[in-house]
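Q: For a teaching handout, I want to show students what a protein-ligand complex looks like in token form. Below are the inputs, and the small molecule is adenosine-5'-diphosphate. Please produce the holo structure.
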Amino acid sequence: AALPGGAAGHRNKSAAFPDERERTLIAIKPDGVQRRLVGQIMQRFEQRGFKLVGLKMLQVSEDLLSQHYCELRTKPFYPSLLDYMSSGPVVVMVWEGHKVVQTSRTMVGHTNPAEAQAGTVRGDFSFHVSRNVVHASDSPEGAQREIQLWFQSKELLKWECCDQTITCE
Ligand code: ADP
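A: Here is the structure, written as tokens, with adenosine-5'-diphosphate included.
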């Protein structure tokens, strides 16, 4: 039978995972970098099966932070949030895959570490909401906005996995 979206007999990979190109922004906040948690956090996304398409370390400007957290600007903790987020470098990355936004939120855990399940990043590595180690976009639309804010399009790379392209002669 013809597969959807392709000629008969042509295997259309995107039919199996229609949103395999979904992307999310994950940032390891200054406390995560300072506590040397970068490797462990990245490992969780790799072992879950997501694809890393963007990665950099930077000292974030106040301008970028105020755009990133614009929805929180009226909150009482907003000034201390900006101080926290500029207290040292962050590692920011873009991960790609099926339902990566929702899955990442589950992996990262509740905003307040006191309510975060053990096994989540926040549930395993933090105990206070003002030092919760990691950021994850909360919706596909939010992810798109944040990725455009933090990355130039040329910093996001397309690549294929060697075990999908190997040929035997
Ligand atoms: P999330 O990061 O889980 O999407 P929010 O968007 O609500 O959560 O908040 C953004 C960040 O602001 C949180 O990750 C946390 O660092 C900080 N924050 C949220 N609530 C508080 C609070 N009550 N006190 C201090 N910091 C907070």
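A: Two things your students might notice: The helical segments are 30-34, 38-48, 62-68, 78-85, 100-108, 121-125, 140-150, 162-165. The chain has eight helices and four strands.
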